[in-house]
Design goal:
Strand 2 (40-44), helix 2 and strand 3 (72-76) form a beta-alpha-beta unit. The chain is globular, with a radius of gyration of 19 Å. It has helices at residues 27-31, 50-68, 80-88, 99-109, 158-170, 186-194, 205-214, 244-255, 259-268, 286-295, and strands at 7-8, 40-44, 72-76, 94-96, 111-119, 126-127, 130-134, 149-152, 179-182, 200-202, 222-227, 231-232, 236-239, 274-279. The model is unreliable at 1-30 (pLDDT under 50). The chain is built from 10 helices and 14 strands. A 7-stranded mixed beta sheet has the order 1-3-2-4-13-5-14, with helices on both faces. A 5-stranded mixed beta sheet has the order 9-8-10-7-11. The chain folds into 2 domains: 7-124 and 234-302, D-Maltodextrin-Binding Protein, domain 2, CATH 3.40.190; 129-228, D-Maltodextrin-Binding Protein, domain 2 (3-Layer(aba) Sandwich). The protein is an alpha/beta fold.
Length: 303
């Protein structure tokens, strides 16, 4: 039976208030360079409904625990900034960040990307940001959102904030030209559109696939007016100031997990059918560093 050890963290201050978990223990685990302090803490940003994200992350945590012979405690952080801050304060050994979240985790917390979600053919998976309107809307281009209300996901999200705002700028729209409503997440932005409380909403390809499969979104009733270039999927990172032996062991473990171990969380990232995790480096996410520079984003922009 899977051990109930994944917590939804309501605030950064509570990030260490974890329930006890069963797993490998004793002097061998505690003293091993692959089990610093007798446990591994892995953070995940809240990119999906916790009801879906929690069980998917538990499967990944279980598999990693078996590989490293060390208890893995998984935390779903309150938001993007909380995960960056937790790693910067040495409260996470591993972090799964969104691409833009990784930019700031790299700069502020020394996060080093080692793996991401691969396709069944062994290629790095990607997703796209999108802006949708009701099928009957007279809006057919981003420029026509002037004076309209646009629901975005969360501040600091790659596809749910930065890329749609870049699309507005590219269309010649100033921030004051569009009424932006941060809904609180990708599912909430989609819901704002389906409930008719906004004129348009960001819906990335991952949320589109999930919501369509669950029957909560009917693409035939809506129309996409903008799509981004492909975005490399979320990196799994390790904290840079850790023992090189630990980082090497984690990297090896992640890259050799069975596709089934990462399949559930991969499905939430629209990676279906799943493959093994694939290696990535900082260079993989160079376009996101450039995006942050173009928009003048700072760490405050992911809070």
């Amino acid at each position: 039976m899977r051990r109930p050890r994944l917590l939804v963290v309501a605030a950064l201050a509570a990030s260490l208030a974890l329930t006890a978990c069963a797993g490998p223990s004793g002097p061998a685990a505690a003293e091993s360079p692959t089990c610093p302090g007798g446990q591994i803490r892995m953070g995940i940003e809240p990119f999906e409904d916790p009801a879906k994200l929690v069980p998917a992350a538990e499967i990944l945590g279980d598999a990693l625990e078996r590989r490293l012979n060390c208890p893995v405690r998984v935390q779903v952080t309150e938001d993007y900034a909380a995960e960056v801050l937790a790693m910067r304060n040495d409260r996470l050994e591993i972090g799964i960040f969104g691409p833009l979240g990784y930019v700031f985790a790299s700069e502020r917390a020394g996060a080093e990307p080692v793996a991401s979600f691969g396709t069944a053919t062994g290629e790095l998976s990607a997703y796209t940001a999108g802006i949708w309107v009701p099928r009957g809307s007279d809006v057919t281009t981003v420029a026509q959102l002037r004076g309209r209300t646009l629901a975005l996901g969360s501040v600091g999200s790659t596809s749910g904030d930065a890329l749609p705002r870049k699309a507005l700028l590219d269309a010649g729209l100033a921030p004051a030209d569009v009424r932006v409503d941060y809904a609180g997440g990708h599912p909430e932005a989609l819901l704002a559109l389906t409930n008719g409380t906004v004129d348009a909403a960001e819906i990335n390809s991952q949320q589109l696939a999930s919501a369509t499969a669950s029957g909560t979104f009917d693409p035939a009733r809506f129309r996409r007016v903008w799509t981004s270039a492909p975005i490399p999927n979320d990196p799994v990172t390790v904290r840079g100031n850790l023992d090189p032996a630990f980082k090497a062991a984690v990297t090896d473990a992640l890259l050799n997990l069975d596709p089934q171990a990462v399949g559930e969380i991969g499905a939430l990232l629209d990676v279906t059918p799943p493959g093994k995790l694939v290696p990535v480096t900082r260079d993989t996410y160079a376009p996101l560093f450039e995006l942050a520079r173009t928009l003048g984003l700072t760490e405050k922009d992911v809070q």
